[in-house]
Amino acid sequence: MKFESQLLKGVAPVVVLEILSRGPMYGYELSQAIEQRSGDVLTLGKGTLYPLLYNLEAKKLVKAKWETSDSGRKRRYYSITGQGKEQLAGQKQQLRELSEGLRLVFEWAPA
Amino acid sequence: MKPEEENRERHNGLPGCVAAFLSELIKHMRYRRLVREEVRAELQSHFAEELRACKSEQEKQKKAEDVIAGFGDIKLLATLLRRAKRRCRPPWQTAVVRTAQVAAVLAVCFIVYVIWFLAGRPVITTDYIAQFNRLVRPPADESLNAAPFYTRAAEMLKEPPADIAELLKSEHGDLSAEQKQRLTAWLTEKQEIFDLVAEGAQKPHYWRTYEGNEGMISVLLPHVRSYRHLSRALGHRAGLLAEEERQEDALATIQVCYRHGRHLRAGNKTLVEQIVGMTAENVAIDAMLGVLSGNPLGPARLAVLQKELEGLFVDEDFAVRVEGEKLGIYDEIQRCFTAGRLGGEHLYPRRLASLGIGDGQGEAVVFDLMATPRHWGTVARILFVHPDKAQTRATIDRAYDVWANWLRKTPAQLRDEGIHINDEMERTVKGNLLLEIMVPALGRVHELSYMTKVRFDAALAIVSLLRYEAEKGRYPENLDELVAAGYLERLPLDPWSAAPLTYRRTGEDFLLYGWGENFTDDGGRPGTDRHGDLKRWWAGNGDWVFWPVAQGDS
Fold first, then answer.
1. Are B80 and A47 in contact (CB < 8 Å)?
2. Where are the domains of chain A?
3. Rounded distance between C-alpha atoms, residue B12 and residue B215, angstroms
4. CA distance B88 to chain A (A)
5. CATH number, span A5-107
6. ipTM of the complex, rounded to two decimals
7. Closest to B322 (Cα-Cα) out of B275, B281, B273, B268
8. Which pLDDT tens digit goes with each residue over B282-337?
9. Among partner residues A27, A29, A54, which is closest to B84 by beta-carbon distance?
10. How far is the C-alpha of B415 from the C-alpha of B417, rounded, in Å?
11. How far is B264 from B259, CA to CA, in rounded Å?
């Protein structure tokens, strides 16, 4: 499903932080994880992913480190920071409240 | 793409379109090379992961093209990557970069400003020398002008021999008999010159035509030294004539000396001329008192002398005139500041160099100064904060109005008002390089003018006291008695005490003195120099004694 880009823009950072909170990942791995874990509902374009990661890095919500894999390939792994975890918790709470509010609106029926 | 880059990509097993894409992306990023290479490496790794499952080159190529398409617009991506990486920069690095950017902008602005600054040129719009000549010229025919006589006399005198010049500088009473003989011989030889001066002194007016090729500051005063020599020579001549008991000839010579001095001093003249004039007048007064001291005159002759003196300088305006100096500064303002339009109305370094700032010429002055760290303050002043032409002109207009008023006050009045002329002037012009150079030290000139006035007033009082004694056989108890008896029109004021000169009878003689520049009544004790020798004027530690004339004085 193709979502409005504006809708995705707001949730992209929290999605990335949530996935990284489960463990460090490199860019390609992260883009695959977003698709798989959202059941292909959410897709983050490559042109959005890396700028987003660098912005999160600038805000010190994630940190990055080069590592060499077993196959000898060098990858830049991203992991969430303490500050990132706090930010994630706050944003997840807001999204839950937003989701609950939307549900109430959609399910409302006149008496 | 560079061949080495293409090779690198192929070595990684990635298609050429990936290498081309990454090269284009990195080129558009326009950021630090290390950061761009890191981004390139990361995206290379991404492509490698994306293409890992492809089995054939064709498949790889297709997949690579899809991934490249997925990245979207390359320029937009490059911009987003650059902005994001810039935010990753540590704050100190951001501060350094911003500072360097600001410094670069300021440097460019500075260079442009200096070019603009140096582009301006002054424009001479007013001939202030002509204006000054119109100011000094009275409405009189040239035949009534003493200047040609004085000029010819000065040209004939030239520079006296060194030994004669030394004698002329000495006090007449300090000369030995042999020295007086040499001086007499020289004076006799120069008789024609003194006759010229005497002829000029009879003229009612004196004015000269000032000339200069670089404005008022270049106005030539070619005979100032000669005029000094002339007045000293006349003073000695009067002394020698008095010693020969030729009092009338001596008094006539003194009158010539005084008139010559007054011609130079009175009216709108340059400060230098006024000072030389005052010096000549003081020489004349000293010589007259010397004559009277050694050669008593009868009451009738004293009455005539008093009348002559009153005719000469009672109600005379001794205040220093500064109109000429003001015109000189106006002239320099138009020469030292650029005209409007290109380059504004700011200080012009080339002219300042000719006035003595810096060692170079013109624009080099600014660059010479810039090369020397201790002059950077001066450079900054010249380039950025120095008052412009209008502000300088306004400063000088305001200042001269105030200073002209001060010059008419006595030293005692200024002291009571807490005004120190030189300090105040310095404070007024501080910060303006041109005015700091141009403005004369009026403090001393002011004192000299009042010293000249008090000596004249004292001389008049002395003549009237001598007349009183000659007629009544004694000196009066006080100066009030002298005025009450009609021998003197009014009490002589002491400009340094704001009271009349101090007088008291001393047996068969009298003492008449002023407090002098220390504003203190030292009881008539004259000043001394640092060796303890008598120093009648400007010693700062005694009174100015007008009578009796000190031993060894003319």
1. yes
2. 5-107
3. 82
4. 4
5. 1.10.10.10
6. 0.87
7. B268
8. 999 999 999 999 878 899 999 999 998 888 876 677 888 888 889 989 998 998 89
9. A54
10. 5
11. 9
